[in-house]
Amino acid sequence: MKKYNLNIIRKDLKIVYSDNDSISLVFQDNNILKGVVGELDSNLKELEKLSRSNIYFRGNSIVIKGDQKSNELVRKAVEFLTHQFKTYGTIEKKDIISSMDKFMMNEKNNKNLHQLDYIIKTPKRTVIPRSKKQKDYIRALKESDIVISNGPAGTGKTYLAVAIALTMLLEKKIDRIILSRPAVEAGERLGFLPGDMRDKVDPYLRPLYDSLYDLLDYEKIQKKLEIGDIEIAPVAFMRGRTLKNSFAILDEAQNATDTQIKMFLTRIGENSKIVVNGDSSQIDLINKNHSGLLRSKDLLKNLNEISVVDFDHTDVVRHPLVTKIVKAYDEFKND
Q1: Cβ distance 213 to 143 under 8 Å?
Q2: I want to staple 120 with a disulfide (CB 3.0 to 4.6 A). Which of 104, 127, 201, 249 is the partner?
Q3: Please, which residues bridge with residue 106 across strands?
Q4: Residue closest to 160 by CA, chosen among 128, 203, 198
Q5: Given the DSSP bridges, would you call strands 230-232 and 176-180 parallel, antiparallel or unpaired?
């Protein structure tokens, strides 16, 4: 097969087109190539699942074979993953999925430019919605003063809210991010926790921290925590405050009472947003009827300024097994 070089040469990649059905990406650094390919070619196999191309690892090259449009999408995805590996030294499955979504989304944007509104760009990640419900949620986060969401683990409720909040903070559209949740153990009794207030609350807010660290460098997050740009507060300590120029997130809201959720929502002030997230299938309160999440949804769903988003197992974007687990428990509950 006759090859011709389009003279598309980058620092780490030389791209060679063979007729119209094959592209070879020749790597100058074998360590980068191994990182992009993944252990036992796992990253390439994942790319194959997401595209209509066949992808091979030969010598110091990745070869893509398929229709021209699919090949170009994979080529762009490999370039994206190369940058990802060089920058962070690792490639995760979600990066592979995002790499394909990113460029498939760009193809659609040629016809629907409004799709760009759903892409969230942070210093470490480009976050792309993976379901229609996630698009609805992102639109609500951008357009509504208050958003209440309910759904199972792994649907992106916390991650997307933190991503939007962080971009607004970095763009100076708000002055503070406030992260809060009820201090209720998940069916355990942890007893006395040593340290100051932040030390006591931190274990409960670990999912929020994980989202922050995934979107912005650790040192920058620590600095913003120190100067108060990002604030950690148990929901009980929000009483009496008025939140101005802020983005406040109440996580694990299924463990907040009616009174607590009402108190949190009524803290909203000028140029502020409030997000209340929870999973009504994981209530850890001794009396489950005291949970205020579902009641707040029902009471407030008809207010124009408030958006209510319900996720289900089909929206889970974590490990595929999570979807099956959530579905199995839902079916058991409904039997």
Answers
A1: no
A2: 127
A3: none
A4: 128
A5: parallel
Q: Could you give the domains of the chain? A: 3-97 (3.30.1370.10), 130-314 (3.40.50.300)
**C-alpha torsion 325→119→66→29, nearest 10:** -100
Rounded CA separation 178/238 (Å): 10
Per residue in 34-81, pLDDT (tens digit) is 999 988 888 898 888 777 788 988 888 999 988 888 888 888 888 888
Q: Is the pTM of this model over 0.90?
A: no
pLDDT for residue 82: 86
Closest residue by Cα to residue 268 from 233, 323, 295, 306: 306
In 3D space, the residue among 287, 281, 267 whose CA is nearest the CA of residue 326 turns out to be 281
Residue at token pair 């995934």: 214
pLDDT at 111: 41
Tell me how far apart the alpha carbons of residues 280 and 255 are, in angstroms, rounded to a whole number: 9
